[in-house]
Write a structure and sequence with these properties.
802 residues, mainly beta, 6-stranded antiparallel beta sheet, 61 strands, 45% strand, globular
Length: 802
């Protein structure tokens, strides 16, 4: 076993995962992180308390949601709340609403009636009220509109008879909400990829869709109307199809059972062999009126009105009618045409609408129209309720790729280059791509992740897709798919962290780091959870990458714990930590968006308050705050009051009945219970942070040091003194175990008793009250809503060799 005394004496870069001659003492590392609760390991050295979480709102009706980031730019970033058949939008720490109107009165009645002239709201609208003076019970809350008139509306189900009397001011705004068809059970399986103002969505049970933002408050969710594809391989059976007409709404008839009711919305493509049907255009040739010719894959009709002789220039246009010499040629169609099924009649008959191709033509080839022209040259669309829709999506080299349908689980569908909704087949370099993984077992493609190559992450292996020579672009005739590793990926969307791919393995209990290895010219996988495998037992259900201000991977455990991983490969720092939220909060979803100098991590947290299930949307406060202890925010689902000194703090309706922890003007305040959305402080304060309290604790490894005849493990030891080095800390307890902790003094006689204790940076000498045992551990804990950062722990000890 490697010696790991360094983890006892210092938490510097690299030492949190102790190394000696390339080996890691995994047992001791696991012990170290087992009780590293609500503490974050930093590569610059030290361990700091997790920041608190700020309350941004509740989910609609308290339902379970999935949080997804939408980033147009660093200043235009949103968090999308995907719930049961709806999507809502968070920005700047709160729900996005439409333009607000002023409130001029609110009655004390059951239900409460709000007066807001020309509010423009409708019954059933969800609204958000803020800024009311007097009746503060309605502030920062969401309500449903009922009984609306031109200038008034009711707050459905709200009895305000016991509220404070309305005084003045306040605004009301309709919450921006987009209707969707994704149900609660489907939320975790939604895959997505973003391009500018459009978020493309994929789910195996839904037509691929796109969420488009046109303004801060205007969002539209629509199914993607693909142009010409993608398709299954062309028919090779004797079954024929024909259309009743060449445009508009047509009937498609099959010679054998082919269709199902689930084919509504599916594409059908017809192909005509032009060389058999039409003569090729020729120069200096006499053409009668209404004669058809072909040239360069297109069909033209002579429409001059009389017989004419062609010149030397062939028709090349792809729409309308053009004149070449003395002849008018009307563009009719190329060698293909396609329709979309609009209604199912029976297994041999459907109704369909002729679609417009990428050339703007809505005409089927003449030789597929009518029963005498029944053809075997047809292809059915790859995406439908019959075959399943793609579950994976991703951008790579200016193409939007889909993959993982039920009937083609190993097939990748790439769009036309720079035309994401166009899948017109072809062999040209910019045509759509359709390729299937050749493998010795079925590997359902779960995720697509762009990197140096396009990574195809499947249920049992990881592949890469690239151009034939690796550095060449991918084209329909130049595709190279290679198997790289064989871990298998679960439902959670993998991500890129630095130059690595991070994925949760299909069993959900292992986190893999996949990087490009120059020695093998391929991908190499490393198990990150081997350092602390107990933290992932039971399964991980979500994850996100936070790049600023520190490099942190965040994971959601199936039991609701928040698990962190300090991940800074460049500085050889990889350290796990565990985070339980105050109030027994259960984390269900996580995402992150840029917000100034930091990435803002949002969480959906489930709690039980007053016997009711609620879900709070919160975000982690900044890791770093001003040097003033008043700005330290270390409560969960908390809010901040900042203003004139007061003893009455209102607007705490989301914590009704909860005993909350309070920091008032930088000093810990006695806990209070929220009643009527408010608490009364024991002393007035001008800056107050209120929320659930939580405990942060750190426990060192069993001591390994000081032995004269080998290692000290298994020998009797005693720690008789400890020096702890702190950075910007107030309040801490230290001792040999959680039952024997002494609170460290941070206030001295030079400080005014009516002022907050300033942040302390330096060493604290502690007389350590430990006995004689085999472990010799040190525990440091913070239970107050105050910051604590530990740079080093130095112990003075004896090891008894006898």
């Amino acid at each position: 076993m490697a010696r790991v005394s360094s983890i006892i004496t210092n938490f510097r870069a690299g030492e949190i995962s102790p190394r000696l001659e390339g080996r890691i003492d995994l047992q001791k590392y696991n012990e170290a992180v087992k009780d590293l609760n609500n503490m974050i390991v930093f590569p610059q050295g030290g361990t700091t308390r997790r920041p608190g979480t700020f309350y941004a709102g509740t989910t609609k009706d308290g339902g379970q949601v999935r949080l997804i980031n939408f980033e147009f730019s660093d200043t235009q970033a949103y968090v999308l709340e995907f719930g049961n058949n709806y999507i809502r939008v968070f920005k700047d720490g709160g729900l996005v609403t439409e333009a607000t109107t002023a409130i001029s009165a609110i009655t004390k009645a059951n239900p409460a009636v709000v007066t807001s002239n020309s509010h423009g709201l409708n019954n059933g609208d969800r609204v958000f009220i803020t800024g009311v003076v007097g009746m503060t019970e309605v502030n920062n809350r969401e309500f449903t509109v009922a009984g609306k008139t031109t200038n008034t509306f009711q707050l459905s189900g709200v009895n305000s008879t016991g509220f404070t009397t309305y005084g003045s001011a306040g605004t009301v705004g309709k919450i921006v909400e987009i209707t969707s068809t994704y149900t609660t059970s489907q939320l975790s399986s939604i895959n997505f990829a973003q391009s500018a103002d459009v978020l493309f969505l994929a789910h195996n049970s839904h037509q691929p869709a796109k969420l488009t933002r046109t303004s801060h408050t205007s969002w539209t969710l629509t199914d993607i109307d693909f142009t010409d594809g993608p398709y299954l391989d062309e028919n090779i059976t004797t079954t024929t199809l024909y259309a009743s007409a060449d445009n508009g709404s047509v009937t498609i008839t099959a010679s054998a059972d082919l269709f199902a009711s689930t084919d509504v919305g599916r594409l059908i493509r017809f192909r005509e062999v032009l060389e058999i049907t039409y003569d090729e255009w020729a120069a200096s040739t006499s053409y009668a009126n209404d004669v058809f010719v072909r040239f360069n894959g297109h069909v033209y009709k002579h429409t001059t009105g009389s017989t004419q002789t062609s010149g030397n220039t062939p028709p090349v246009h792809t729409s309308g009618t053009e004149t070449y010499g003395s002849l008018n040629w009307e563009y009719r169609h190329d060698d293909t045409g396609y329709v979309k099924v609009t209604a199912f009649t029976n297994a041999t008959t459907v109704t369909a609408s002729v679609q417009t191709d990428d050339g703007g033509i809505s005409v089927l080839p003449a030789q597929v129209v009518g029963s005498s022209n029944a053809t075997t040259k047809w292809s059915l669309g790859s995406f439908s309720a019959t075959t399943g829709f793609p579950r994976a999506i991703g951008f790579y080299e200016e193409r939007l790729y889909f993959a993982g349908t039920t009937s083609q689980p190993q097939t990748i569908f790439g769009s036309v280059s720079a035309d994401f909704e166009n899948h017109t087949p072809g062999t040209e370099d910019d045509a759509a791509i359709n390729v299937t993984i050749a493998s010795d077992q079925v590997n359902v493609i779960k995720h697509l992740l762009p990197a140096r190559f396009l990574q195809l992450l499947t249920t049992s292996a990881e592949f890469t897709l690239s151009g034939g020579a690796g550095s060449e672009p991918v084209t329909p005739t130049n595709v190279n798919v290679l198997r790289e590793t064989t871990f298998g990926t679960g439902t959670v969307k993998p991500l890129r962290a630095g130059n690595s791919t991070i994925l949760i393995q299909k069993g959900a209990e292992k986190v893999k780091e996949i990087t490009f290895d120059l020695d093998t010219d391929g991908l190499l996988g490393v198990d990150l959870t081997v350092l602390a495998d107990h933290l992932a037992r039971g399964g991980l259900t979500d994850m996100v990458w936070q790049q600023e201000p520190e490099l942190l991977l965040w994971f959601v455990h199936s039991d609701g714990r928040l698990i962190g991983l300090t991940y800074d490969r460049a500085n050889a720092t990889v350290g796990w930590h565990e985070h339980s939220l105050g109030g027994s909060g259960i984390v269900e979803s996580i995402t992150a968006i840029p917000s100034g100098a930091e990435d803002q991590v949002y969480l959906s947290v489930k709690r039980t308050i007053n016997s009711a299930t609620v879900r709070h949307i919160v975000f982690l406060k900044s890791l770093y705050f001003n040097d003033d202890v008043e700005d330290a925010f270390f409560v969960d689902s908390g809010l901040t009051y900042s203003g004139s000194a007061t003893t009455s703090i209102t607007g705490l309706n989301h914590l009704e009945g909860v005993t909350v922890t309070i920091l008032a003007d930088g000093s810990a305040h006695a806990d209070k219970t929220v009643s009527g959305g408010a608490v009364t402080l024991d002393r007035s304060a001008s800056k107050v942070h209120i929320g659930y309290g939580y405990t942060s604790s750190l426990e060192t490894l069993r001591m390994e040091a000081g032995a004269e005849d080998g290692i000290s493990q298994g020998k009797i030891k005693r720690i008789h003194g400890v020096t702890a080095r702190f950075f910007q800390t107030v309040g801490a307890e230290l001792g040999p175990d959680t039952s024997n902790l002494d609170r460290l003094p941070f206030r001295d006689s030079s400080m005014n008793m009516d002022e907050a204790v300033p942040l302390f940076t330096g060493d604290k000498e502690i007389s350590f009250p430990s006995g004689y045992d085999n472990d010799a551990k040190i525990v440091i804990r913070q239970t107050q809503p105050l910051p604590m950062t530990i740079l080093a722990i130095m112990r003075r000890s004896n090891t008894f060799d006898a």
